[in-house]
């Protein structure tokens, strides 16, 4: 693979890992009862999902035979970031809509 293409693939791979780390860190720092109040899965389940997805993205790169695992990990992390995280923030702030 030419060098610029390799650099782009490497940046994409590690950006996914960073997104997974962000999702895991956020899940770790939230109160356990907020997950139930937001009508989402429990905190240990989301820690397992985000942690497992981060490990999968770190082990398997964006380009290669394990790309399907990297992609599944990215999707799991993004589901947490886009769906669960806003609900947790809303619940913990009292659900006020300004």
Automatic annotation (TrEMBL):
Keywords, A to Z, come to: Membrane, Transmembrane, Transmembrane helix
Q: Which InterPro entries match?
A: DUF2516
Q: Which residues cross the membrane?
A: 6-25, 68-84
Short name of any one Pfam family annotated for the protein: DUF2516
Question: What is the protein name stated in its UniProt record?
Answer: DUF2516 domain-containing protein
């Amino acid at each position: 693979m030419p060098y610029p293409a390799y650099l782009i693939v490497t940046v994409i791979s590690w950006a996914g890992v960073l997104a997974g780390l962000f999702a895991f860190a956020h899940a770790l720092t939230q109160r356990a009862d907020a997950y139930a109040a937001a009508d989402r899965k429990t905190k240990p389940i989301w820690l397992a999902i985000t942690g497992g997805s981060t490990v999968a993205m770190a082990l398997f790169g964006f380009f290669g035979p394990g790309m399907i695992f990297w992609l599944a990990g990215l999707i799991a992390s993004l589901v947490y970031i886009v769906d669960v995280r806003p609900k947790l923030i809303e619940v913990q702030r009292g659900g006020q809509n300004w």
